[in-house]
Every structure is written in structure tokens, then in C-alpha cells.
Amino acid sequence: MSDLHVYDTTLRDGAQQEGLNLSVADKLAIASHLDDLGVGFIEGGWPGANPKDTEFFARAATDLRLKNATLAAFGATRRVGGKAATDPLVRALVDSGAPVVTLVAKSHIGHVERALRTTREENLAMIRDTVSFLRGEGRRVFLDAEHFFDGYAVDRAYALEALRAAFESGAEVAALCDTNGGMLPGQVWDVVTDVVAALALGSGPGGGASGDARLGIHCHNDTGCAVANSMAAVGAGATHVQGTINGYGERTGNANLVTVIANLQLKEGREVMDPHLLQESTRISHAISEITNVPAYSRQPYTGASAFAHKAGLHASAIKVDPDLYQHLDPKHVGNDMRMLISDMAGRASIELKSRELGFDLDPEDEEDSALVQKVLARVKELELRGYTFDAADASFELLLRREIAGALPTFFDIESWRVITDSRPDGDALSEATVKLSAGGKRVLRTGEGNGPVNALDQALRLALATAYPEIEHLELIDFRVRILDAAHGTDAVTRVLIETSDGETTWETIGVAPNILEASWMALVESVTYGLLRAGVPAR
Ligand SMILES: CC(=O)SCCNC(=O)CCNC(=O)[C@H](O)C(C)(C)COP(=O)(O)OP(=O)(O)OC[C@H]1O[C@@H](n2cnc3c(N)ncnc32)[C@H](O)[C@@H]1OP(=O)(O)O
Ligand SMILES: CC(=O)C(=O)O
């Protein structure tokens, strides 16, 4: 295994993302996932800065059993003119019990003079005093050299002096921070190369810094280069890399740690972590999205839902021969999957591969299968012209395919008719009432449902009508409903596209309906959603 430190700051810098607010329980749950992923260090927050972070460290001491990672507490150097030993925020770092303390310190002379409003000597004294004190308290100390790259451009000698002060006082790591995120990879490479030489680093164990000292990197993504900058720094000699899961962080975020690790390991051949743990990265990235309540970014490299999803027919036809022809690596390395998307850009190969993904092995050499593929393809193209979008409604595509394959789709129910009315009421609210007539379980059923809107009422009525024949329907929940008016420029020619997301508590699926009338489109998507739910549950037609 390589000697590179993998340092995660999701719980500290990640939590500085706009709209992200983690409870102590959330932080503990995320820390567990990070440990499962195999990161070396988990920065838990800033104890003393807010009660939540203080409590996190207190609870971590009793509730968190880390297998792989070491916990780090983040904080600042002591106050100007004070003493580390009596600084309450420095004391809180010790009291956190974390074995590692990461100190943010100024290395940019402009920040020393204008933000700290002190002298260059006092800033260096703050670094020395705080690092020495924490070392004396038995802590490993890492230093985050804030605004290092901008500071280096203004006064290289002073920026280096700040790092020397930290190392001479016993810091193990000095992480160069691109705090404003404005750097480009070439600049980072040049600066890190120079710092490694100037501080005579690179002669230590593992090709790292001399003695136990290491140079680290902490990048923000303001130029869209956080990952590339982190890679450049590691290439130039940094042996400690910081980042966050899903690239969370202040402003445009931090370097996405999974992307950095996967790049180093799978592209550059460095053994950063156990390959089995890397295979957990997609699952863990998504599990953490659930906790943060920030929707997973589908186009995220390696772990995104679309990272190995293929839409173009030409891609599919080559992938049929060998997936490597249109994929930069096997998604299994990061625990992701290849998926075929069906749309009007599909070709026969797309339909064949998607069918295989769904468990239907259609043989292109077989005349019947080939005709079926051609028919499905033609149907998809015709429907997409009318406003369907099957790449957002996988479940509806599966139903379309099954309708063409003899015996692949049971007839769960037959709709006779449906109707909705909406009443305005004296209290100002409007209430909708829907009536559905259908046959299921060998009986004709008529049910009425009420709802706060017409689609809600239709959903209720459909469920009531099916409940006796299919009690399994109780587990299905409509979780999202999206409407889009297409070709609105044509006024009355406009059609409505409705996408419905449904859950059975374990998984979710999307269905689609397209019609000139919004209620008709909604009804189509609802019927598809329920049909697919019954199919997934393995229920026989009754
Ligand atoms: C680059 C980064 O992202 S570093 C992480 C930043 N994270 C955060 O700021 C989140 C947590 N922060 C907080 O809760 C609060 O800002 C606290 C508790 C740390 C401080 O709060 P307050 O005492 O009210 O001070 P305030 O936030 O207004 O100002 C920060 C003070 O720290 C000083 N300071 C800034 N950097 C450092 C440093 N590296 N070392 C010592 N002091 C510093 C500032 O000069 C300022 O001093 P002043 O009060 O004499 O003006
Ligand atoms: C320390 C830190 O988060 C930064 O400089 O960006």
C-alpha cells in the first residue's frame, strides 16, 4: 500500500457547503461510512466553535468504532497576543480527545497584516506556540496553510517561513491550501515542486518528506480544477491529500476525494487503498448523499448514476462487441454499473443490450428476435417524437418491451374508464374527487378517491380499486411527480409530459405519460407506475 495520507474533510469543509446542515447523528453516520471507505483520517469538525461539533467529538469517543481511520479535530492557531495554553479554542481541541489536530494558519502576508491585523513575527509565533503546545499535549499536529498559493505569489519567503515554523515545532504535515480555489494544475505543480526542494522534503520514508514531515494539498474547485490540482500536487511530491465525498464544500466545493483516489489508484497505479474498499465508493457516495439530503450528482465521475450510462446507438453497437470500446474503465472497480439508456438516439444494439440488462436475451441472428428489436426500436422513436423520453423512464421502457414479448407482461387489470372533478369550496380550498372503473381479480370494481388535487385523487381511486385484488399495492408510494409542457409555442398543439417516480420502500422507478391533456398524461404514468410495481413484486395476475 502506498504511503499517501488520504484525509477526508467532509464533516468540516464539506459542511461549509451552502444548504448543507448536518446533525451530530448525521456526522456520526457519515464518519462510519468514511471509515468503511478506508480513508486514513476523518476531520470531524471544529470543537469549541459550536456546540454541535463539540458534542460530535464527545459522542465519537464512545459511539464511533473506527477500523481504518484516525479522527482529526480542526481549529485555528491561538489568538493574536495570547498564549496557546490559555486559549479557550485551543483548549477545546485538546479536550476533543482527537489524536490529530489540524490547525488552520496564515501563510499569506497580506492575510497576516489585513485579516489577522498583526505582524509577520507574531503570526509565526502563533504557529510555533500552538503547534508546540499541542505536541506537548500528546497530539499529532497537521497544519493547513491557508491561502498558501496566493501567499507564495506575493511573498514566497514568508509563505515558506510559515511552513518551517510548523515543521520545526513538531507538525507532521503542512497542507498547502488553495483556499480561494483559483489555481490551475501547472501552477500547483510548479509551487509544490519548489516547496519540496526548498524545504528539502522528499527524502523521507515512502518518498515523502524528510523525517516524519509531509507536504499536503487541500484544493477548492473554483476553477473546476480541484481534482486536477490535487493530482498535480501529488505528482510533484505531496504525500497527504485532502478532499471531501461528493466534492462538498464552501462555494464550488472541495476536491472530490473519491475521484482523486480512483485517479491515483486506477489511472496512475498507486495503491492508495484496498481495491475492495474502492469498490464500495459508489454505494458510500450515494449513502452519504442520502444523509446530507443533497441529491446525488448523476454526472459525477466514477460514482454518478450516469458515469457509465450510454445513450448513443453507435456507442451501444461497439459496446456490444466490447464495453472497453466506449468506457474508460470497468465500472466494477468503483462499484458502479454500466447502463443502456433508451431514447430516439438508440439503435438496434441499444435495444438488444437494454433487453439483456432486463433479463431478455434477444438473439440478433434469430429472425423473430431481430424483428421484435426492430419493432421496439421503431416504437421508441415514434413515441419520442411525440414527447416521450425513455431515458428518464426506464420502467416504462421495460413495460413497452414486455408488451412485445409474448407472455412477458401479465394483464393485472383492465381499465374501463376514469373521471375527475374538482370543486371550489366555500373555505377557498379546492377538493378533487376521482372515480375509476376497472376489472381486477375477476370482478368489475368502481371506486371513488378524494385528494387535494386531481392527480392525488386519481391515485387514491386507482389504489382503492385495486386494493382487494392486489393488497401488495399498499407498499407503493408515489414520491415525485414532474410535469413539462412540450412545444408550448404551438399553443393548443402543446402536449404534456408527466414523469412519476414511485418507491416500494426498497427501490424507485420512473414511468411516463404523454398526452395533450395533463390529466390523461398523469393517468397514463400512474397506471404504468402501478403495473410496474406489481410486476416487480412478482405478483401473478388475479
Ligand atoms: C479557510 C477555512 O475555511 S478555515 C475554516 C473556517 N471555518 C469557520 O470559520 C467555521 C467556524 N467558525 C466559527 O464558529 C467562528 O468564526 C469562530 C468561533 C472560530 C470565531 O468566532 P468569533 O470569535 O466570533 O470571531 P469571528 O468569526 O468574527 O472572527 C474570527 C477571528 O479569528 C481570527 N483568525 C482568523 N484566522 C485565524 C488563525 N488562523 N489563527 C488565529 N486567529 C485567526 C480573525 O482575525 C478574527 O479575529 P478577531 O475576532 O480578533 O477579529
Ligand atoms: C483550511 C481550508 O479549508 C482552506 O484553506 O481552504
Number of strands: 16
Strand order, main sheet: write it out: 1-2-3-4-5-6-7-8
Task: Calculate Rg over CA atoms.
Answer: 29 Å
Instruction: Give the oligomeric state.
Output: single chain
Quickly count the helices. 18
The structure class reads alpha/beta
Organism: Knoellia sinensis KCTC 19936
Pathway: Amino-acid biosynthesis; L-isoleucine biosynthesis; 2-oxobutanoate from pyruvate: step 1/3
Pfam family, one: HCS_D2
Family: Belongs to the alpha-IPM synthase/homocitrate synthase family.
In short:
The protein has 542 residues and is of the alpha/beta class.
Q: How is this structure best described in words?
A:
The protein is of the alpha/beta class. The protein folds into 3 domains: 5-292, Alpha-Beta Barrel (TIM Barrel), CATH 3.20.20; 309-404, no CATH class; 414-536, Alpha-isopropylmalate synthase LeuA, regulatory domain (Double Stranded RNA Binding Domain). It has helices spanning 24-37, 51-63, 88-95, 109-114, 120-136, 148-154, 156-168, 185-198, 226-236, 257-267, 275-278, 281-292, 313-321, 348-357, 367-385, 394-404, 454-466, 518-536; strands at 5-8, 41-45, 70-76, 100-106, 140-146, 173-178, 214-219, 240-243, 309-310, 339-340, 414-424, 430-440, 443-451, 477-486, 495-503, 508-515. It has an 8-stranded parallel barrel, surrounded by 8 helices. Strands 11-12-13 form a 3-stranded antiparallel sheet. Strands 14-15-16 form a 3-stranded antiparallel sheet. Strand 15 and strand 16 (508-515) form a beta hairpin. Helix 6 (148-154) crosses helix 7, helix 8 runs parallel beside helix 9 (226-236) and helix 15 packs across helix 16. The longest helix is centred in the last third of the chain and has 19 residues, at 367-385. The protein starts with a strand and ends in a 6-residue tail after the last helix. Bound molecules: acetyl coenzyme *A and pyruvic acid (PYR). It comes from Knoellia sinensis KCTC 19936. Keywords: Amino-acid biosynthesis, Branched-chain amino acid biosynthesis, Isoleucine biosynthesis, Transferase. One of its GO terms (biological process) is L-leucine biosynthetic process. This is Citramalate synthase. Belongs to the alpha-IPM synthase/homocitrate synthase family.
